[in-house]
Amino acid sequence: IPSVSSIVPESCLLIVVGLLVGGLIKGVGEKPPILKSDIFFLFLLPPIILDAGYFLPLRPFTENLGTILIFAVVGTLWNAFFLGGLMYAVCQLGGPGLNHIGLLANLLFGSIISAVDPVAVLAVFEEIHINELLHILVFGESLLNDAVTVVLYHLFEEFANFEQVTILDIILGFLSFFVVSLGGVLVGVIYGVIAAFTSRFTSHIRVIEPLFVFLYSYMAYLSAELFHLSGIMALIAAGVVMRPYVEANISHKSHTTIKYFLKMWSSVSETLIFIFLGVSTVAGHHYWNWTFVISTLFFCLIARVLGVLVLTWFINKFRIVKLTPKDQFIIAYGGLRGAIAFSLGYLLDYEHFSMRDMFLTAIITVIFFTVFVQGMTIRPLVDLLAVKKKQETKRSINEEIHTQFLDHLLTGIEDICGHYGHHHWKDKLNRFNKKYVKKCLIAGERSKEPQLIAFYHKMEMKQAIELVESGGIGKIPSAVSTVSIQNINPQTLPLERVIPALSKDKEEEIRKILRTNLQKTRQRLRSYNRHTLVADPYEEAWNQMLLRRQKARQLEQKMNNYLTVPAHRLDSPTMSRARIGSDPLAYEPKEDSENLPIITIDPASPQSPESVDLMSEEPKGCSGLPPSPEEDEEGLVMRVKEPSSPGTDDVFTPGTGDSPSNQRMLRCLSDPGPRPEPEEGEPFIPKGQ
To answer: Is 607 a domain residue?
Structure first.
């Protein structure tokens, strides 16, 4: 039903399906299944996170990493403590049913409900096609706040068992945040390097190549969870590290398998999670307390809005591209909660947390409100506020070259200024990667392949696949096959040279790539800019001029093809002039009349006196030569002036009669010569003028 799915997000529809299924099972008399935390964390969550980490847009993520970390760490801590403190106050003032809930239990509840959920964010933001900056900010926050959530959850859970919490426990809890986050990243990097190294030796067993990607990624997640580290951070790190090296080693079929299997696996997990949320809502034990639930919902929204406003005010002091009020609204409105909060609440033990059912009821209420209300209204609000949408643009060789050029330029500027910014460290990392890591993790000559050729090879393969899938295999442009990257014959480099030299084959291939892709840059509609595009005021006029010239040339060709000349008969002088203009070949001068004076007729306006020009008639006063006897006998010969083509300029295009003698003749006839210079006593401007 497209009319429904265009208004209601898919996640909402799946929760409704889960509610219906759970109600049906309960109506039959059976007990509906509940989404157990082990099933969720071990089987349903990893595919979604691996898909997000493996295909993470690395450049926008690293460029906005500081902003994402501030939102993920400081924002989540603010939400947890603000919400937990206020809920503790509500419990103290809320009457006898809430007085027994202590501060630690409320802080634990705040840490569970404060984290933005990556599954819910992905489900909603993928459908509204928001611009890349906002998407990576909200989605990156939802991925990286897992470390904060895990630390706070386990911290408050342990503190609830203590009789007394000391300052040392608080300091150790603070340090455990760094251990959990950095430890998860380290585990992911180790497994990513192992996966890349393993893929170097799989050329003879292509069938099981995709298995290594899934195996090592899942091992990274389980190893991190085993030591209470952040499994989500481990999965993201493993996917980001292994992808460039694995894709260089594995076959294209294996790459396609990994891509589609990950997409299918993550979409199935997402569907099951939302359906199970609906079923668990019907099946679970609920304890409804109006004061607690409404306060939780209200304070969640207040904490999110305040946190985003304060943090953005601080972040904009350091950002070049500022976050506008519209961006801040979408970031605050996109803080969706989901199944991670539900599963963490379900993990609570009844012995230490007797109010677990009330916590779960409040969590489900917040999840339903954010997914249904915010998820359904965010698309109309994006259209209403005219927030910039995502633009589907294909990367090109031209854009890649200019991006690399700007990176090198900014690195050089930082070196000159003595400021070691992120461009400097990024350049250091790229050099280390190219010099050492690629040689160890990429097999064969692909490790020495220049980046431009590798990128072109990737684009060529992608374009060929698109053409095959669209059925346009017969229309493959010649540019696709101009460069055969497979036939690179690398030469051994001399040892004494510090700078590695490219072989002649590679240099020639780079030249071919540049010739093929950079010579037609004028045909592209608009050049790429990272931020805003300023319209070129001359571009439209230039295109109109080219179109007019092209139409004029086509018209001239048609006239030359279809113009017919009628039979000659005696007519008036005006008709004779017109006929001469229409058929100049019939009035070509004789072979022996080259030195005779010529009258040129302009066929554009035969009646005007300016249409007859004396071109070769030189009077005796100008040339100083007596007239020849042939001139007296033959008289004047008429020659037709050829009409100028519409694409040429009559003023600047030299004609057939523009020889130096003709120009001298015209000057003799029309120019009386320079004025005599004024004498010393005579004023420069005569009187009376």
So the answer is: no
With a CB cutoff of 8 Å and minimum separation 6, the contacts of 318 are: 66
Contacts 24+ apart (CB under 8 A), 82-89: 82/110, 82/299, 82/303, 82/306, 82/307, 83/109, 83/110, 83/113, 83/114, 83/296, 83/299, 83/300, 83/303, 84/108, 84/109, 84/110, 84/111, 85/110, 86/295, 86/299, 87/292, 87/295, 87/296, 87/299
SS3 115: coil
**The predicted structure's pLDDT at residue 598:** 56
Q: What is the pLDDT of residue 618?
A: 44
Calpha distance 376→12 (Å, rounded):
8
d(CA 362, CA 295): 9
- Residue 638 in domain: no
- The dihedral of CA 655, 656, 658, 664: what is its sign? negative
The secondary structure of 26-82, three-state, reads: HHHCCCCCCCCHHHHHHHHHHHHHHHHHHCCCHHHHHHCHHHHHHHHHHHHHHHHHH
What are residue 600's DSSP bridge partners? 613, 639
Specify the DSSP element, H or E, that contains 128: helix 118-128
Q: Are 362 and 295 in contact (CB under 8 A)?
A: no
Paired tokens of 291? 């004061």
Joined tokens for residue 77: 């801590």
pLDDT for 341 equals 87
Cα(601)–Cα(609) distance, rounded to whole angstroms?
A: 10
Q: Does 222 fall in a domain?
A: yes
Strand ranges across the sheet with 612-614? 612-614, 598-601, 637-640
CATH classification of the domain holding 84: 1.20.1530
- Do the beta carbons of residue 116 and residue 339 sit within 8 Å? no
Specify whether the CB–CB gap between 282 and 19 falls below 8 A: yes
C-alpha of 472 from chain center: 26
- Reported as type and span, the H/E element at residue 133 is helix 132-159
As a whole number of angstroms, the distance between CA 193 and CA 216 comes to 10
Distance (Å, whole) CA 109 – CA 129: 32
- Of 161, 152, 150, 300, give the one whose Cα is nearest residue 228: 150
User: What is the C-alpha to C-alpha distance for residues 155 and 230, in angstroms, rounded to an integer?
Assistant: 14
Instruction: Give the Cα separation of 303 and 298 in Å (integer).
Output: 9
**Token pair in block for residue 343:** 């599963």
For CA atoms 18, 20, 26, 30, the dihedral sign is negative
Residues 6+ apart with CB under 8 A from 316: 322, 323
Tell me the pairing of strands 637-640 and 612-614.
Answer: unpaired
Closest alpha carbon to 398 in 313, 521, 250: 521
Q: What is the pLDDT of residue 297?
A: 92
| Tens-digit pLDDT profile for residues 613-630 | 444 444 444 444 455 544
pLDDT beneath 70: ranges in the chain: 95, 392-395, 445-452, 471-502, 518-537, 562-576, 578-689
In our burial notation (b when 16+ CB lie closer than 10 A, e otherwise), range 372-388 reads bebbeebbeebeeeebb
What SS3 class is residue 265? Answer: helix
* 510: enclosing H helix or E strand: helix 504-518
Q: Is residue 181 part of a domain?
A: yes
> Is residue 601 helix, strand or coil?
strand
Give the CA angle between residues 17, 19, 22 to the nearest 5°: 105
**Which uninterrupted H or E stretch holds 241?**
helix 231-249
Number of domains the chain is built from: 1
444: left (phi over 0), alpha (psi -120 to 50) or beta: left
In 546-606, beta strands by DSSP E: 598-601
> Which residues form the domain of 74?
36-273+284-385
Let me know: does 601 contact 577? Beta carbons within 8 Å: yes
